[in-house]
Amino acid sequence: MTTTADLRTAVETYWTAADARDWDTFATTLADEVLYDLPQTRERIRGKERYVRFNREYPGDWRVRVEQVVADREGRQAAARTLFTVGLQELHAIHFFTFDEEGRISGITDFWPEPYEPPAGREHLVERY
């Protein structure tokens, strides 16, 4: 049975390997039939080989740091919040993972929010950080 600790370790290994550009280790975290969804661009990638290649060929000199990982008690789903740094720009992202019976990542959905200024009129309710 896959535990929440196993899921957390899989997600942390996935991101550590991506940050190090260690694509062999990255691939070990993935199920052969992994499905990757990117809602903002409406892109989908099917299969480990294509997904690893997508990451290997991704342009730019980016870094990633895991800020938080949460996992369900059933050992099937996890979510992570990350901080990506590209030059001087920092991007927070949210990632949802599903896992197969062996504890490998079988599904990934990434949300890459663009920063924006909030609308006027709610300053009395919010705290900016």
List its traits.
alpha+beta; six-stranded mixed sheet; 129 residues; globular
Describe the protein in words.
With 129 residues, the chain is α+β, with helices and mostly antiparallel strands. It has helices at 4-20, 23-28, 48-56; strands spanning 30-38, 43-46, 62-71, 77-86, 89-99, 105-111. It has a six-stranded mixed beta sheet with strand order 2-1-6-5-4-3.
User: In DSSP terms, counting alpha (H) and pi (I) runs of 4 or more, how many helices?
Assistant: 3
Would you tell me the structural class of the helices and strands? alpha+beta
Low-pLDDT stretches are: none
Biggest sheet details? 6 strands, mixed
Please bin the fraction of helical residues. 10-25%
Query: How much β-strand is present in the residues?
Result: 35-45%
What sort of overall outline do the alpha carbons produce when their principal axes are compared? globular
Average pLDDT:
91
Alpha carbon gap, first and last residue: 40 Å
Rg is 16 Å
Tell how many strands the DSSP assignment holds.
6
Order of helices and strands: HHEEHEEEE
User: Strand order across the biggest sheet?
Assistant: 2-1-6-5-4-3
